[in-house]
Write a structure and sequence with these properties.
The chain is of the alpha/beta class. The protein is 26% helix and 27% strand.
């Protein structure tokens, strides 16, 4: 199966590529959203390695001899025409794809979405799952169609957050889990088991937008572990904070307090007593004027 991996210069895309390589099913080519790596040249382009490739996805492709194109959305069509994939796997690509381009690939486009669809369609589902207090993150492999996050569901899985991973590590796990779902789908396809897709109800589930600054507020009424999961999981995206009688505390760190911890916090700390335990917050105070 001639496979094109489409993504971005992100941890999720890099993790998906690494997982495909570990399974000895490397993509035949890679397209990542970003600066155009060679606008004046058509055909197969050499992998681009730049300082902006912080997740190392293009460097990983180069090290494994995988042809790569980096460019704006208009160049995705060129990549499809150049490599003529039988199937496309999408992992963290931030743009809509035209129906004509979706229909030009014989076995279609499959997307790794970081939630259990139909819940948490839309922007940054990892944030909203953490915001809503989930102790796990869902991953869905679904077929792409003209409707955003509404294609038929192929398979799903979850992973826990007991170790309080940050957003980078959560994204890495999403990329890996999504590839495991894809490998299972591919194996079933080769066996002729192709009737396991479920159509989504467009009226079911939920859809969220981009997080607003006020969405980063923590609530002392949460459980201790929920509060720590949220702080550690979203602080890469924006500063979580605690409203206080004198202003706002920007939270830099959070941990569940050791049993028997004295009530007096250290300088730069705030001790929050939740219904099931206490949380130590590392904070910077912003006084209201």
């Amino acid at each position: 199966m001639n496979l094109l991996l489409v993504g971005s210069r992100s941890v999720q895309t890099s993790a998906s590529l690494a997982a495909l390589l570990a399974q000895e099913t490397p993509p035949d080519a890679l397209f990542v959203d970003g600066p155009d790596n060679n606008p004046g040249r058509a055909g197969g382009l050499p992998p681009l390695i730049t300082p902006e490739d912080s997740a190392g996805v293009l460097e990983l492709a180069a090290a494994n001899g995988i042809a790569a194109i980096s460019g704006p959305p208009r160049r995705l069509k060129q990549a499809v025409q150049t490599y003529r994939p039988e199937q496309v796997l999408v992992s963290c690509y931030p743009h809509r794809i035209s129906l004509a381009l979706l229909e030009s690939v014989p076995l279609g486009w499959l997307n790794i979405h970081p939630s259990l669809l139909p819940d948490y369609r839309g922007v940054n589902p990892i944030f909203w799952q953490l915001r809503d207090g989930h102790a796990f993150i869902g991953v869905t492999l679904h077929r792409m169609n003209r409707e955003f996050d509404l294609g038929p569901i192929i398979d799903q899985c979850t992973f826990g957050l007991a170790d309080f991973p940050d957003f980078t590590e959560i994204s890495r796990r999403v990329g890996r889990c999504g590839v495991q779902l894809f490998i299972g789908y591919r194996d079933n396809y080769r066996k002729g088991w192709v009737d396991n897709e479920s159509v989504q109800d467009a009226l079911a589930g939920s859809r969220q937008g981009r997080p607003r600054p006020q969405d980063f507020a923590v609530d002392p009424a949460w459980s201790a572990r929920r509060l720590v999961r949220f702080v550690k999981g979203v602080r890469n995206l924006g500063p979580p904070y605690l409203e206080t009688p004198t202003g706002r505390d920007l939270i830099q760190e959070a941990s569940v307090a050791a049993s028997g911890r004295l009530a007096m916090p250290l300088p730069g700390e705030r001790l929050i007593h939740c219904y099931d335990g206490s949380v130590v917050l590392g904070v910077i105070s912003e006084e209201r004027w």
